[in-house]
Amino acid sequence: MSNRTVREIAADLQVEPHFLLHSIRKNKGYLPGQSISTDITIPQEWEHEIYSWFKDDKSTVSEIEQHLSQYKFSDANKLIKENLHFNGSEIEELLRKHEQLFFNQHLKNLLLQGKIEQADKDYESNKVALQSISEEKYPGLKKECIRAGIIDPIESLHREIQFDKETAVKIQRAAKDELGSDLTGDMAISSQHHEFLSHKQTALRNIANNLFFAKVEVNQKDSTDEIGPVNYFVTKNRICALLGQDDWHLISWTSPVTSYLMDEPVSSRVSYHAPKGVINYEILSTARYGAILPSVIKSTYNLTSGSYYVEHEQNISIDVKTPSEQTIKLPQEKPVIDDYEAKGSFSLNEIIELADKTQRSTMHLPFYDSMVIEGPPGSGKTSIGIMRIPCLIDRQWEELGLNESKDAPFHRESTMRVLVNNDEMVKYLDDLTKSIGIQKVKVMTIRNFLRDICRNTKTLKGRQVEDSDPLAFLKTLPSLCEFYGQCFTISAGQYWDRVKHQLRAKMDQCDQQIEKFYDEKDDYWYVPKNIKAYRKIEKKLRDEHLKTKGLGGSLYHTIESWAISISRKEKLDSNCSLALYISKWRHDYLLYWQSLNKACRQSGIFKNIHKEFEKTLKSLALPSSIKGFYTGLVNRETIVSNLSTEEIYEKISKEFSGNGFSDSDFRDALQEWKSQIRDNKWSEYDLVLQAYLGIHLSFLSEVHKKDYKKGEPIVGCFKDKLTHIAIDEAQDISIGHAKVFELLLEKNGTLTFAGDLHQRVLNKGFFDDWKDLRISGIKKAIFSVNFRQTKQIGIFLKAFYFLLFGMKPVWNETKDFIGPSPRALPLPDDNDQIVQSIADEVRFWRKKVQDSTIGILWVGENSSEKRNISMAEKLEQLLDDLLIPVSALGGNPGVTMRTNQVILSSVQQIKGLEFDIVIFIDLENKLVGKVSEMSLINRNSIYVAISRAKYGLSALLPPNSDIYKEFLKYSKIN
């Protein structure tokens, strides 16, 4: 028999050739030949010896396994190290795995038998010698057995509750310790950071009384490490940094992790794309708490073995008969509560806890994205839009790579706005923002927001009037802002041609007077001329300005450069700011008298020279000349007149006429607009156009503010640094509004639009699709559940939606909120009987819901205030025994924020609001005829009106109208 190679012998032994090669080198001390290869031949006399090694190895392995099965880990380790011929780290690692397998199986057996204390004891006594199972893995093994339901579910639930309560105490102590540490920070950092520290301190203080409302237990793994199990406890307090230890962390509801983990089922796997990389999670268990200390109550635990609602931790019990007949008393789901109580107030703290997965994801959208939130009435659009604000503030440190202790934040409360369409919503949303700890975000009506811009930029004056429908449609055409800007550039060029010679003459006269002042004071200049500090200043004044273009000439050249630049532009852009041009000139203007002032103070004599010079400058009234030029420049009449130029007129009239209006309507609308301007009047949509103009012409950046330590700019104003704007009821804005909002944002700033196109109740020319807003990179979230109404009203509203719009809604009603069916009643002919019928319905509903707020609503944009007040007074008299206040909406913002009352209002005045009860009436005979023949605005208004009701809905309608018949039919749905 010839000699065989290492490879051939290894095949017989069923081992790797390289392992055999190393074993031969270890035991024989050398190899035949010089080559270290598995192809070398082995002498025949060695083969028997080699086979005996591996026979001994197998015996040794069997002995090791026997030691392991008896948990003699030290003896097994000794054999591994001393008696194995087969030398290689691979076999040692293999046996280590066997060792861990045996030990794990031993622990599992104990755990599965419920011998948890014995398992803990064996683990503690062997973990040092074992060195193959880390301290982090044993708790995981232990929880795995409990979670599998093999250990008693009662026992596992008790252990979860005990762990949560112990952790709650740890969290309280950690918050107290953190609060006691130095939170003052570096005094040299910005005031914005101190504002952040103040918020952090408030959050830490609040933890003592408001711990956490949810928990998610996970195994997590990133690109470098695997951690688990970890318990994330979610708090309503906005703590930006993690607070915790190895096995638990307290995180804020504003953390994006909550949107990925909180609503996921047990055993699911989730990936989160964090700024620093991808993190993978496995959901092990979740919980939602009613209270945690001193006892766990009204809480839901989702474990692998099932979901359990705990009314009170003391109520969890077992009826013990025999081991095989044990009956576990665990509620399997949270009971449905159908009693309705009118609430005196509403807080977004409730939404933090109740938000569903879609809502939570919308709060935590990608940081840099603008957003449209669309959904049915009561789906939480407005609430989630507002809640996005604290999420942006708290997430910015990680997203932008900012250091909390050194860097100024990008998002601050003062750089964010919430805009609404009506005055009634201001106080309501302001209260909502404050309910989640946002104290300094301004809530304003869009009208007042734009009015402030126009006021500060001096682009509009006069008094407000209403537009006719054609003119309102014209002013809100999608392309009108750009055409309006183009018309301005034309009028700016025309205006410059008219005034440039007059302005040049005035500026020359200014320079002559300044030169005369210098000549008259020439005898006295020897003192300041001999002062070293002044010589360079005087030379600059004389040589650079008076000998070239002079102070007046400098101003003329500045305005001329701007006028030539603007007249060559086809549309407005970021380089159109006259204020910026004048700001640069202002430096020269101030240099003249400030430098002379300094020199005179240093000389100690002739102190009045600089005052005389300042008086001379003031007499020239250069700032007044600039302001006069600007006022003439933004003349609305000339801008609107340029809409009639042939090219622009053709484009606008084509767009205007393509939407149901005639050429005659267009000409009449233009004439009405010009008439408004001549009478010094303006409408709501002029605010948009003039704000658009003012932003381009008059806004100065914050970077220029340091040059204006005293006083305001001669022309223009400083732009508010806005980083986020949330717009409620956005279906009622125009495309021009969206352009203005986008212009006001800083780089990386974002917008949130919350709205529903079927809730548009203004008959103006707006947009048909959210894409028409033309906001770059905007994302869209669609909410699919109506949480506001009872199940009965929700079903009715879905049916009525199909009646009004001819399509099925894509949203669903809530299933857990139970109430009475809607009511349909005939509307009397006589006004007194109408009031009596309303009073009867108010009594009916007040018996069902005490202290309820009842809205009496009708379709009509311009309803008579006098009539409404009269109706309110009569109704209050009929209800005098109930002692309930009755208010007619209009001119008194805040009325709708008061509860336990009756409110009379048109639908247009209560957009975004809700009532316990709604009584819908056709007060202005707008709902006669067939539904299909009603205008879209009227159908939208009906939809808005009936969707304001939370618990009860009544309708008083003409009995011979189709809308009443349909209402009566659908109101029978249960």
Main sheet characteristics: 8 strands, mixed
Unreliable sequence segments? 85-90, 183-190, 318-337
User: Residue share in helices?
Assistant: 40-55%
The count of helical stretches stands at 32
Question: What would the average pLDDT be, to the nearest integer?
Answer: 78
Number of domains: 5
Task: Tell me the strand percentage band.
Answer: 5-15%
For the terminal residues, how far apart are their CA atoms? 96 Å
Overall geometry comes to: globular
Structure classification: alpha/beta
What does this structure look like?
With 974 residues, the chain is of the alpha/beta class. The chain folds into 5 domains: 40-133, no CATH class; 153-335, no CATH class; 358-458 and 725-783, P-loop containing nucleotide triphosphate hydrolases (Rossmann fold, 3-Layer(aba) Sandwich); 480-682, no CATH class; 791-970, P-loop containing nucleotide triphosphate hydrolases (Rossmann fold). 49% of the residues lie in helices and 15% in strands. It is built from 32 helices and 30 strands. Strands 3, 4, 5, 6, 7, 8, 9 and 10 form an 8-stranded mixed β-sheet that branches. Strand 23 (785-786), helix 28 (791-805) and strand 24 form a beta-alpha-beta unit. Helix 19 runs antiparallel to helix 20 and helix 29 (831-848) packs across helix 30. The longest helix is centred in the middle third of the chain and has 41 residues, at 480-520. The protein is globular, with a radius of gyration of 40 Å.
What key phrases describe this protein's structure?
974 residues, alpha/beta, Rossmann fold, 8-stranded mixed β-sheet, 6-stranded parallel β-sheet, 30 strands, 49% helix, globular
